[in-house]
């Protein structure tokens, strides 16, 4: 593919972006805001009945008031109390106006996260930035499942992008401080925090725990005591009883994929076995990245861990796969020797699979996006493994690795 063909393809992509964004903004969002109703409703509940924030019946009443057509479909809101604090101002507005404002905020967060990543990891390839922006905006889990539905995964995308960019710049404490904002969904942090412990990234961990302490202190003070955390813990413990409201084709983690394929629940042994095998794969990925010859090994290990953390988890809705974009940009230098046509083909494959993954999963009981994420992770580990190695994460390069 020559330069003119690439420009034409990029121009066509931007036309699709403009058309999709126009469709989202101009159409009535009544049937596409099933996720935003969670955040709008808990904001209203906090304003009207703060003591019933984690009362499912009270939540359901608010859900029905905002979206009566979804009665009986929505489970409880599992988000920490500081999320309700953030959405309380929007909840004072009419629902559709609040949705449109949040859509604008989410779009801005996504663009800002992309810019931070590109500036940190691909500063010397500015000519490729427009194509990367275009592809990232066309990624279906962002366009339809985050932006159109009003999800808050844009916060996770921006936060993880900023934290990883700060790590790349050796701003350890600020990286951890930023990472603490991902506590709105603790499952995003399980493997990242484990990596930081294994890599002895103590300054980053100190920043994370400082941020977590600030969030906890402010939230506890606003709610007038620790009772709100007990209510939140009780809600989280009872989430498993609402499995029937989950659409398995919307989830990417290996446990959801197996439940989708088998059409039923998994045994305890199967769950432990799958998570154990996945954990071993992640440990191997850490070994490959933390002993590689790249300058910023922890940032590389972090980026490689992100797609694996989507699979080796207990709750990964499809909209959380926006973190895959963070990983791809964070590991882009592993693939800079490949011909542009292969990178373009891979990007187009990802866009196509992301668009039809839910439909295929619902009709064929196979989640193709999970399979593609697994393939991307395997390729990242393989490329990292075939870099020059060092003795440990802080030593100098010893020399080229022997062929395998």
What's the overall geometry?
A: globular
- Sheet with most strands: strand arrangement: 1-2
What would you call the structural class?
Answer: mainly alpha
**Element string (H = helix, E = strand):** HHHHHHHHHHHHHHHHHHEE
Strand percentage, roughly?
under 5%
The total strand number stands at: 2
Radius of gyration: 21 Å
Oligomerization state of this entry? single chain
Pick out the low-confidence regions: 388-404
Largest sheet, described in full? Answer: 2 strands, antiparallel
Instruction: Assign a percent range to the helix content.
Output: 55-70%
SS summary, helix count: 18
Arithmetic mean pLDDT:
88
In whole angstroms, how far apart are the ends?
32 Å
Question: Overview of this structure, please?
Answer:
- The chain is mainly α.
- The protein has a domain of 268 residues.
- It is built from 18 helices and 2 strands.
- It has a two-stranded antiparallel ribbon with strand order 1-2.
- The C terminus is likely disordered.
